[in-house]
């Protein structure tokens, strides 16, 4: 992945990339989220309190339906907590906003806009001039190595390329927080590994806070500073693990002893939790 | 119980860890390298592709022409032999007579006035229908109140044929011209409203969310997300609406006047000039086809992204 490794030397607006460093302090304070009401009420997230430091890379790991996406969506501002409060850099989250960039699982690029227009969308609706939008788009096209595809439409790109555009589009607003909802879940295993390395390189440039939702243990350990394991019914964080692997990381790290150790520990916790849920349902 | 099992499976379904060799591979989704030989090959491929497309088109054109020719021959035989087998061809003019009448009219300036008047009426009615139809359709697709308010009108009025509107149109509008435009307008309106509504409704939620998180306002979301995503559907509505508009034209032009291709057709019937009836019908059909094609052609630059998707 030499193409992405050398971004630092290639991105001309290098200084501005670091603009988001030091920001992105997320506080989740006693948040619970209930969908529906009365007998149909479903508790998606149970009183959760978390503190995510600026610049931290956090993975939320859990099975489908455990409420991890709901928690992410509440940080994004799509879902309003039933109780408690979420704040970013001291400001309460009341709805979606450009300070929190979002990367979705797939098919979230505007199909009628070219790659350049997709990336420039945030700055454009934010009221920046056409020249500024153009130079921001160029910076980020270069960052994700898709300059050649600037005028292509999303449908002409592979899944991996589309997700790189998705990341570039979210970062073009210089958000303090990057929220990623299983962004590589729909990619094939090969492409996914490449994307993980690529993301780490981009993140090291940016220093922005990342909250990354996944159900893949390897992915979580490879990427994160810290892993939050969530369990289903009711959705809550059951473990908060530090990842003691040095950075920069390359794929070889996945065969290291520390990696294996953490993986074993994650699986153990998840297994215990699954068994508990299993017994609960059998009753 | 099944749920718990599935959850356990989800955890174990992670890809196996990669060895050092894996990292050396080039990215799977990297842009293709373009050297000289590859460029030449891609040009060759494009030429082959274009030739194949041309051959496909020529084939379609040949079959279409042959089909039309067979139809005309059958029409000719049926009329010259005065076939009367349930359907009576005794009074139907043969194609040669129709062609003769058509050539005669094409040399007559008044015939072009008929066409011009009709085209103007269609253009006015269609334009008004487009404006109101897209507006109403958008309101109905985006707002629950809008839908509750307008949907009953659309559903009740939609099945009423253009001819049934004639008496009321005459009573309601100050001039005959306005009545005729009103009837062509109605014809185009319903397909445009319905298709716009469906198009607007189907704007993918994930794109709306993406736009919100990028900081777009409600109006910006409408212009950059909802409207473009509804455009293919709106275009279909416009194309169908244009067809129905021509379809309603004759009903409108029965009302009155001295001009219009519908009036021309209806007048030919009153004058028992059978070849002219068919000339009027064929010209209506041709103009309808051409204008529908123009609508699609006009929308094409806006839908460029869709053709690339394949």
UniProtKB/TrEMBL annotation, chain A:
Residues 26-257 form the ABC transporter domain. It comes from the Bacteria. It holds the Pfam family ABC_tran. PROSITE patterns: ABC_TRANSPORTER_1 (PS00211), ABC_TRANSPORTER_2 (PS50893). GO terms for molecular function: ATP binding; ATP hydrolysis activity. InterPro entries: AAA+_ATPase (IPR003593), ABC_transporter-like_ATP-bd (IPR003439), ABC_transporter-like_CS (IPR017871), ABC_transporter_ATP-bind (IPR050166), P-loop_NTPase (IPR027417). CDD domains: ABC_NrtD_SsuB_transporters. Gene3D superfamilies: P-loop containing nucleotide triphosphate hydrolases (3.40.50.300). Keywords: ATP-binding, Nucleotide-binding, Transport. Belongs to the ABC transporter superfamily. This is ABC-type nitrate/sulfonate/bicarbonate transport system ATPase component. It comes from Lutibaculum baratangense AMV1.
Automatic annotation (TrEMBL), chain B:
Its main location: membrane. Residues 1-39 are annotated as: Disordered. Keywords: Cell membrane, Membrane, Transmembrane, Transmembrane helix, Transport. It is a multi-pass membrane protein. InterPro entries: MetI-like, MetI-like_sf. Residues 13-27 have a biased composition (Low complexity). It comes from the Bacteria. GO terms for cellular component: plasma membrane. Residues 115-295 form the ABC transmembrane type-1 domain. It holds the Pfam family BPD_transp_1. Gene3D superfamilies: MetI-like (1.10.3720.10). The chain crosses the membrane at residues 58-78, 122-141, 153-173, 179-200, 221-247, 277-299. It is found in: Cell membrane. One of its GO terms (biological process) is alkanesulfonate transmembrane transport. Belongs to the binding-protein-dependent transport system permease family. Probably part of an ABC transporter complex. Probably responsible for the translocation of the substrate across the membrane. This is Alkanesulfonates transport system permease protein. It comes from Lutibaculum baratangense AMV1. The lineage of its organism: Bacteria, Pseudomonadati, Pseudomonadota, Alphaproteobacteria, Hyphomicrobiales.
């Amino acid at each position: 992945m030499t193409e992405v490794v050398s971004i630092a030397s290639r991105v001309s607006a290098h200084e501005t990339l670091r603009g988001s460093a030091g920001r992105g302090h997320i506080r989740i304070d006693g948040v619970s989220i209930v969908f529906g009401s009365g007998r149909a009420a479903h508790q998606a997230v149970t009183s959760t309190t978390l503190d995510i430091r600026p610049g931290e890379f956090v993975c939320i790991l859990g099975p489908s339906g455990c409420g991890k996406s709901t928690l992410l969506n509440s940080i994004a501002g799509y879902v309003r907590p039933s109780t408690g409060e979420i704040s970013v850099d001291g400001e309460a989250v009341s709805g979606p906003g450009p300070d929190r960039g979002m990367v979705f699982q797939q098919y979230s690029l505007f199909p009628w806009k070219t790659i350049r227009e997709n990336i420039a969308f945030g700055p454009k609706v934010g009221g920046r001039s056409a020249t500024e939008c153009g130079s921001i788009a160029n910076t980020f096209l270069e960052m994700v190595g898709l300059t050649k595809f600037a005028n292509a439409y999303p449908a002409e790109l592979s899944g991996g390329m589309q997700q790189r555009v998705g990341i570039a589009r979210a970062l073009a607003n210089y958000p303090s927080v990057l929220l990623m909802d299983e962004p590589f879940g729909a990619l094939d295993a090969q492409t996914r590994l490449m994307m993980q390395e690529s993301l780490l390189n981009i993140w090291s440039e940016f220093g922005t806070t990342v909250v990354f939702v996944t159900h893949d243990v390897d992915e979580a350990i490879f990427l994160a500073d810290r892993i939050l394991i969530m369990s289903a019914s009711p959705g809550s964080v059951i473990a908060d693990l530090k990842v003691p692997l040095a950075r920069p990381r390359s794929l070889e790290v996945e065969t290291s002893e520390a990696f294996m150790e953490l993986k074993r520990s994650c699986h153990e916790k998840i297994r215990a939790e699954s068994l508990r849920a299993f017994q609960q349902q059998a009753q | 119980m099944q749920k718990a099992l599935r959850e356990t499976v989800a955890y174990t379904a992670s890809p196996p860890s990669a060895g050092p060799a894996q990292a050396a591979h080039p990215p799977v989704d990297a842009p293709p390298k373009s050297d000289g030989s590859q460029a030449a090959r891609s040009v060759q491929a494009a030429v082959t592709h274009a030739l194949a497309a041309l051959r496909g088109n020529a084939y379609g054109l040949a079959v279409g022409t042959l089909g039309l020719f067979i139809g005309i021959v059958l029409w000719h035989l049926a009329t010259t032999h005065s076939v009367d087998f349930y359907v009576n061809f005794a009074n139907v003019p043969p194609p040669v007579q129709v062609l003769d009448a058509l050539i005669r009219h094409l040399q007559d300036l008044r015939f072009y006035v008929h066409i011009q008047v009709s085209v103007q009426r269609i253009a006015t009615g269609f334009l008004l229908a487009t404006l109101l139809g897209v507006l109403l359709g958008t309101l109905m697709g985006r707002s629950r109140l809008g839908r509750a308010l307008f949907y009953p009108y659309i559903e009740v009025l939609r099945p009423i044929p253009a001819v049934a509107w004639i008496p009321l149109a005459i009573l309601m509008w100050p001039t005959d011209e306005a009545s005729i435009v009103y009837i062509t307008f109605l014809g185009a309106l319903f397909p445009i409203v319905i298709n716009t509504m469906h198009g607007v409704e189907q704007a993918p939620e994930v794109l709306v969310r993406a736009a919100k998180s990028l900081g777009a306002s409600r109006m910006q979301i409408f212009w950059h997300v909802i409207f473009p995503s509804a455009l293919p559907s709106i275009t279909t509505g416009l194309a169908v609406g244009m067809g129905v508009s021509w379809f309603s034209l004759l009903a409108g032009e029965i009302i009155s006047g001295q001009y219009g291709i519908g009036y021309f057709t209806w007048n030919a019937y009153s004058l028992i000039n059978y070849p002219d009836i068919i000339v009027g019908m064929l010209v209506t059909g041709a103009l309808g086809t051409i204008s529908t094609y123009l609508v699609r052609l006009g929308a094409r630059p806006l839908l460029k992204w869709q053709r690339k998707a394949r």
